Known about the structure:
Layout (H helix, E strand, L loop, with lengths): L7 H11 L3 E6 L2 E5 L2 H13 L4 E10 L4 E10 L4 E10 L4 E3 L8 H12 L2 E3 L24 H10 L5
Parallel strand pairs: 2-5, 6-7
Antiparallel strand pairs: 1-2, 3-4, 4-5
Amino acid sequence: MDEEQIELTSFSKMLTERFACSDVEIRGNQLTLTTDAKTYMDFATHLKEHGFLRCLTVTAIDWMDQGEFEVYFLVHHLASNVYVKVATRIPRKQPKLSSLSSVWESAAMHEREMWELFGVEFDGNPMLKPLFLEDWTGKPPLRKDFNWRDYVAEEYYQGGRK
């Protein structure tokens, strides 16, 4: 089976004509762009249909001062050795996004980590259960407003040492 070859400039143009996106940038063999949360899944499906078969990561950045998380995924097109990073912003107060696990099964584990460490909900992900923090009851520890010094003082020094 011959796979479609991706030329980033024309592929980028096609994506920007089809989807609402911003911050479009090509660097070497990588295309990065930002879209809204409603279009996030449509991008994923479209990329998979165009031969981006490997989802390398799904991760989050906590923009606490802006009240948002940036969630993005990075996918790879093997035949063309091209990468595409698609980012979106969601509110910190109710961080919720559709799961990419129906498009790439490997996304489920990455989303599981983001759920556990940042508190981002991924609708449709069947794996959202503790992985590292089984007995954790506090704030997700990778959020910028998590104070690890207070946590250590309370958890290990009964609040007496900082």
